[in-house]
Amino acid sequence: MSDLTHLPPHIRTLIASSPIPFRATANHTHHTWARTYSSLPELYIRPQSIPEIEHAVRLAAQCRRRITTVGSGHSPSDLTCTSSWLVNLDDFGAILDIDRATNLVRMQAGIRLFQLSEELDAVGLAVPNLGSINEQSVAGVISTGTHGSSLAYGLLSERIVQIKIVLGDGKVRTCSAERETELFRAALLSLGALGVIVEVVFRAVPAFSVRWDQTIDRDEVVFGRWERGQLWDAARFVRVWWFPYMRRAVVWKGDAVPETEVLAGRVSHRDPVTSWYDGAMGYYVYHNLLFLGRYVPRILPWVEWFVFGMQYGFRNGLASEVTAVQPSRKALLMNCLYSQFVNEWAIPLEKGPEALRRLGSWLGRLRPGDEGFVEHGIPFSNQGLYVHSPVEVRVSDATVETSAEKGNRPWLDPTRKDGPTLYLNAIEYRPYHLDPGANNSKDRYYQGFEWLMRDLGGKPHWAKNFTASAAEVEAWYGEDLERWRAVRDKADPEGIFVGPWHRRLLLGGESHLENEEEVLDTKSAKGGGLLWEGRVGGEKSKDV
Ligand SMILES: Cc1cc2nc3c(=O)[nH]c(=O)nc-3n(C[C@H](O)[C@H](O)[C@H](O)COP(=O)(O)OP(=O)(O)OC[C@H]3O[C@@H](n4cnc5c(N)ncnc54)[C@H](O)[C@@H]3O)c2cc1C
Ligand SMILES: O=C1O[C@H](CO)C(O)=C1O
């Protein structure tokens, strides 16, 4: 344990009086991956066992501190910011056992997805579906409703069959679809507000590779296939990047190849053919053009044309095709480039073409008679507005594996209960960690985008940079939110796991719980983003 002399004496006495290790350090700066938010927790705690986690929660309760658990800090909002105690399970990420008959894998919840994928691969197993990256912790992925892009799957958490979680009384509980179902459905998407998830049992699949191809085309061609049902069903994994100014879309689609085919030599791995522009050159060119776009925003449509033309080709259709066969843990990922804001919403799949046509018409300031013009209906000005590309377009279907009847649908799952969901993710990069440019472009873009998403019956992805009120969330989730709140209140009546993000979006009303943290201030941080400061019980944490 490092020097904790900054703590009040009674807390140091409490810590010193227990034989259970308390692996806490001071002077830790927490920041999100995108460096959009940072905070200075009073303590940064890296436990190595369940008793240590239970002990940390009990101490927090006694010392009137809030506990925030952070995984890899990839959630782009202030969700993981705290001035109180920050717990991280990077030292609690081992695989505990693998049942070869059922492919059930039990692991400590701090394990990162890349580590899980590698360890599973060594025994011929895999994670069936991944999002764009594999840096996240398993607990973090579960807790925000992270998804990939496939109509065969819902949220990544649908593979979780059992959770062990330490609740506000500092004791571990085990839950599953059959045991403590209400708690299980709350813990399957809890945004850290229920307790510390310490262990999960995950259903893996036999290892597989992905044979994929990618083409770029006019967006109307892609919408046509969508409306005929020939896009999202064309392969197991399909994802689209839409370019609002060019009105083109890249379609990436991949199918699973059993690893036995690769091992038998019938299929060989091969990476895609790349050009001199791919890799470092394209990365830096785009970065610098985005930087320039902060000062001269009207170049952004040209930047889109140039950068993505260089990357995917200036010609449409088969002439742009790229193919490859890669292990699934590599094929399903992509390079997410630089710091960014991301605002992602879930809408009904069939509304996709309408959503993108209306957004394209608004962003392109199209007029009647222009190609691609539709009435967008967005009641916000688009004058002088220039935005970044692309909009990520992905799908999931949570009705395949999860449901209320099966006891495994998270109460806070933002996807549809009765069919496939489309995710639209509006990205605004932060070149060199600087907020995107002039004219308040990001906020104006997101205002129009969010209005459209609401108009199409959407709900936001919990992890991302959205705006909403608790009243709105109540209207979206209805009884499901009430059930989640009831479980939360019982699991953590003193609010040890509650912060302002939860109050603002999930709980509503004024903060009033004993250990709840409120936001005190936010100011510009050195190096960009916002430095977040909170307080528990009306005082700055460190003064209590
Ligand atoms: C570059 C990038 C790419 C991304 N790609 C995708 C994508 O393809 N699809 C998608 O859906 N999302 C994506 N995301 C979002 C990301 O998957 C989520 O934000 C995810 O939650 C991050 O995991 P983490 O381990 O970093 O969790 P954190 O961001 O650290 O924490 C997220 C939440 O989990 C809680 N938490 C963490 N550990 C525990 C625990 N042990 N017990 C209880 N609560 C816990 C935290 O308190 C917090 O509420 C992406 C984000 C980035 C930055
Ligand atoms: O949040 C996300 O960031 C990447 C895009 O860069 C992605 O796929 C998300 O989801």
Automatic annotation (TrEMBL):
Please tell me whether the keyword Flavoprotein is annotated for this protein: yes
Name the enzyme group at the top EC level. oxidoreductase
Per the record, the similarity remark reads: Belongs to the oxygen-dependent FAD-linked oxidoreductase family.
PANTHER family of this UniProt entry? D-ARABINONO-1,4-LACTONE OXIDASE, L-GULONOLACTONE OXIDASE
Q: Which GO terms describe its cellular component?
A: cytoplasmic side of mitochondrial outer membrane
The protein's annotated catalytic reaction(s) are: D-arabinono-1,4-lactone + O2 = dehydro-D-arabinono-1,4-lactone + H2O2 + H(+)
Protein known as: D-arabinono-1,4-lactone oxidase
Q: Does the keyword Heme feature in the UniProt annotation?
A: no
GO MF annotation terms? D-arabinono-1,4-lactone oxidase activity; FAD binding; myosin V binding
Q: Which InterPro entries match?
A: ALO_C, FAD-bd_PCMH, FAD-bd_PCMH-like_sf, FAD-bd_PCMH_sub1, FAD-bd_PCMH_sub2, FAD_lactone_oxidase-like, Oxid_FAD_bind_N, Oxy_OxRdtase_FAD_BS
Which keywords does this Swiss-Prot/TrEMBL entry list? FAD, Flavoprotein, Mitochondrion, Oxidoreductase
Pfam families from the UniProt entry? ALO, FAD_binding_4
* EC number(s) reported in the record: 1.1.3.37
The segment(s) forming the FAD-binding PCMH-type domain are 37-207
Q: Which GO terms describe its biological process?
A: cellular response to oxidative stress; dehydro-D-arabinono-1,4-lactone biosynthetic process; mitochondrion inheritance
Q: Please list the cofactors this protein needs.
A: FAD
User: What subcellular locations does the record give?
Assistant: Mitochondrion membrane
Q: Which organism is it from?
A: Coniochaeta ligniaria NRRL 30616
Q: In which pathway does it act?
A: Cofactor biosynthesis; D-erythroascorbate biosynthesis; dehydro-D-arabinono-1,4-lactone from D-arabinose: step 2/2
Q: Which SUPFAM superfamilies match?
A: FAD-binding/transporter-associated domain-like
